[in-house]
Write a structure and sequence with these properties.
Distance between the termini of chain A: 27 Å
Helix content of chain A: 10-25%
Mean pLDDT of chain A: 94
Helix content of chain B: 25-40%
Mean pLDDT of chain B: 93
Low-confidence stretches of chain A: 1-6
Number of strands of chain A: 6
Number of helices of chain B: 12
Largest sheet of chain B: 8 strands, antiparallel
Shape of chain B: globular
Number of helices of chain A: 4
Number of strands of chain B: 21
Structural class of chain A: alpha+beta
Oligomer: heterodimer
Radius of gyration of chain A: 16 Å
Shape of chain A: globular
Low-confidence stretches of chain B: 1-5, 242-246
Structural class of chain B: alpha+beta
Strand content of chain A: 35-45%
Largest interface: A-B, 39 and 44 residues
């Protein structure tokens, strides 16, 4: 499909390798190194958050909360670094907890699932975002991972009282 | 000014001095619980309120259940295909009889004691019926209760909880034609549909702030500066919002409704049907074909207005139809003076190609919704205002005077605040007891 595939290497990966990668991603997000976060994605990478009433929806047909291709997720990261991204200025404090990691591997992709809880604190309000993520990871020539797809499914009925997903889950 | 309870909203909440060009709103209007109680009674209890779109209940037996002005409703079609809007409450002891958001049902059975209603609302089963008088429902008062009034206008289903209310088309006044325009999109001419997937979110602010914000042409360059940066980076340039070719204006559509509109004046593309450079030639050709199909169907002047223009339509009190980078239907309701719940859907032409549908959703989400590049910043502004109103004993008034001296002229500008004054004047009159 893209250069990421042709560079991809087939080898057996372990769950702890994937966990280390997901913990690294969580750390980038909690330390607001968002441009570095965007670099974790392949050139055709995507970042999705389905609507709370249709967690199995298709972003090309249904109204999601987030439907980012690689360009837009890079711009999302860049935007959140600006003072004019008002909902995140000053930056909220966040903590991403990643648990229950499972992996399944085929010839080109490592499919990983995990549960998450993200805490966000800003303006005296503490919000909790529980959910689970579905990752499609590709193994690079140097053995590292890149994200082809991250689908963060919020396990909430409605986005209340959080109100918004101005942070990256 | 009377600062005590038992206030008269006309005399103190709205200062409307046309000669001086001064329009002010007292900040207590955003924080006082008694104001909210009056709003519930005299606005939400009386006005026509958006409930659903006809595309959500097309087939016999199809239903959606949702809350409108805090009241749980079932909107459905019965076996014969007739549209109903019921209160979702068992006539026995009150439990909600429908617990799913959508689906198909030929009857609704109360989970508490088992009273069961057909899809036309008729009570068809009571467990152990021998203990009831044979004619206990002879007058039908134990049937599922319909709301006092509901009606459909160009696919938009509205309800009113008042017994007596003017006809919906009269209520909509000059906003009706704008709702009609929102139903005329697309090449196929097959009507519109609500997409699957609902954005259900909220803001920790007073609900009236969202009505003010939803058509505010004055805030874009500052509140959404980072979105403008994004468009500029992608497209290489960005329209200057306030000096673009064409026009931008606000119209008072009567009865508290207004529209903020422009043609070719905004920096984003439109899936119906205004391309932008980064979308490429294939998309441009397809959108041009959509435009020509609409010209053939509704005439060039109207197709030009619909396809190449942007409209932020405010229907009093709590419906916003933003026809911008996508077509959105948004409604909201306050649970407290400083908290309200928002529900937003995407509306799109039936029969739209999959490629344009995908583009539409991407375009919607780059700006709009609780994960977009703009809506969270709007929410932040509303919440900053609400926090600011805690200082209302020190800073008492909001100023909405922009453009007031010329508001009766030919074309009040889009960044003027006529749309807000139109809302607030209606709000003032209804709170003071005016008929809807």
């Amino acid at each position: 499909m893209t250069s990421a595939v042709t560079r991809a290497v087939t080898r057996t990966v372990t769950r702890s390798e994937v966990e280390d990668f997901l913990f690294h991603e969580a750390d980038l997000l909690d330390t607001w190194q968002l441009d570095e976060w965007a670099k974790l994605f392949t050139d055709d990478g995507e970042y999705l958050i389905p609507p709370t009433d249709l967690p199995d929806g298709d972003p090309a047909k249904h109204l999601f909360l987030v439907y980012d291709d690689r360009h837009r997720l890079g711009e999302r990261a860049k935007r959140l670094g600006k003072k004019t991204a008002h909902a995140e200025f000053p930056h909220s404090r966040t903590r991403h907890l990643i648990t229950n990691v499972r992996i399944a591997q085929d010839a080109t992709t490592v499919n990983a699932t995990c549960n998450f809880v993200v805490y966000r604190s800003k303006n005296g309000v503490n919000d909790v975002y529980p959910g689970h993520s579905l990752y499609r990871l590709v193994v690079q020539a140097d053995g590292s991972f890149k994200i082809r797809s991250k689908r963060a499914v919020l396990d909430v009925d409605t986005l209340r009282p959080q109100g918004k997903v101005s942070i990256i889950l | 000014m009377n600062q005590q309870a038992g206030f008269d909203p006309i005399s103190w909440a709205v200062r409307d001095d046309k000669a001086a060009g001064v329009f002010r709103i007292h900040r207590r209007a955003f924080v006082d619980q008694p104001i909210l109680e009056l709003e519930r009674e005299r606005i939400f209890g009386r006005c026509w309120l958006y409930a659903a779109h006809v595309s959500e209940v097309m087939e016999p037996g199809q239903f959606v259940s949702r809350t409108v002005a805090a009241r749980p409703l079932i909107i459905n079609r019965d076996r014969a295909g007739k549209l109903h809007v019921f209160f979702n409450s068992c006539t026995h002891r009150g439990a909600m009889v429908c617990r799913e958001l959508q689906g198909r049902a030929n009857n609704f059975s109360c989970p508490y004691h088992g009273w069961t209603y057909a899809s036309d609302g008729k009570l068809v089963h009571q467990p152990i019926p021998e203990s009831y008088a044979p004619a206990c429902n002879a007058a039908g008062e134990l049937n599922l209760r319909e709301v006092p009034n509901f009606d459909e206008f160009c696919g938009f289903i509205f309800v009113s909880f008042a017994q007596d209310v003017i006809p919906l088309a009269d209520y909509l006044a000059d906003a009706g034609d704008y709702l009609r325009m929102a139903s005329e999109h697309g090449a196929a001419g097959e009507g519109m549909e609500i997409l699957g997937g609902t954005q259900t979110y909220c803001a920790k602010a007073n609900w009236k702030l969202l009505q003010e914000n939803s058509a505010d042409g004055y805030h874009a360059d500052t509140t959404h500066a980072s979105y403008m940066d994004y468009i500029k980076a992608r497209e290489g340039s960005v329209h200057n919002l306030y000096s673009a070719k064409g026009f931008g204006r606000v119209r008072n559509l009567q009865r508290g409704h207004s529209v903020s509109e422009s043609i070719w004046g905004t920096p984003w593309g439109r899936p119906c049907a205004r391309s932008m450079p980064s979308w490429g030639d294939d998309i441009k050709q397809e959108l041009d074909a959509v435009f020509e199909a609409m010209v053939a169907r509704i005439g060039r002047e109207r197709a030009d207005f619909i396809c190449h223009g942007d409209r932020n339509l405010l229907i009093f009190p709590n419906l916003v139809v933003n026809d911008v980078g996508a077509l959105t239907v948004r409604t909201f309701y306050p649970s407290a003076p400083d908290y309200f719940e928002i529900t937003a859907w995407a509306l799109a032409p039936r029969g739209e190609s999959q490629r344009l549908r995908d583009l539409r959703i991407r375009n919607y989400l780059e700006f709009l919704g609780p994960g977009g590049f703009a809506t969270p910043d709007d929410q932040e502004m509303l919440e900053l205002c609400q926090k600011g109103y805690q200082a209302h004993t020190g800073v008492e008034w909001n100023d909405l005077s922009r453009g007031m001296l010329t508001e009766d002229g030919d074309s009040p500008a889009k960044q003027d605040e006529l749309q807000m004054r139109t809302f607030w004047r209606r709000w003032r009159d209804l709170l003071a007891g005016a008929e809807v």
